[in-house]
What does this fold into?
Amino acid sequence: MAPGTTAESIASLQDRITSCRLCPRLVEWRETVAREKVRRFSDQPYWGKPVPSFGDPQARLLVLGLAPAAHGGNRTGRIFTGDRSGDWLFRALHKAGFANQPVSVDRNDGLRLRDCYVTAAVRCAPPQNKPSPRENANCRPYLLRELELLKRVRVIVALGRFAFAAAIASVGLDEQSSRRPEFKHAAQLHLTGGVTLIASFHPSQQNTFTGKLTEPMFDHVFTVARKIIKEAL
It folds into this structure.
């Protein structure tokens, strides 16, 4: 890889992310969880650091989540890996042709993303999945830099209200858009630079166990994303 390429720049950014200690509350929480663990993962090492993004540096699809799960990404060291939300996400990405396999167990399980990049608005697992406004602001420069480096992105799928708001704040609405930004599953908004934002309910157990989000509903989001990408060629 030649010096200065996008892949190299993204890798350097991820190195900076994983060494970040800007938010004392999040540092304490992620490290406490990694030290104390839970019984079902008591025999496993925990990552316990900010969780890097991953995927194809030439991706046209960006999947944006809220933050790593305490016993998911905070344990495995890869976003959406090792938890139920990730089971839903990577199964859907595989069906739509964005992933080489439908399962995500750990960061060395062979999962590869095609034309897709997965990231989060906040990089550390927050208590009760609720980062503070300051913690969100501290993390935003990392997302902004990723958006600068991922020059081919045409579709952003935002998983949940928090990610939806983060995408709008980071990219901005298209100047011609007269639509009020309203979060609704499968809703589409036009962002600056010809990027389409698609809203999705987060594949958390709170949504999937109650039927608020079904597998066909979730699959539809990525089918639409694939269609938009093809039409943009």
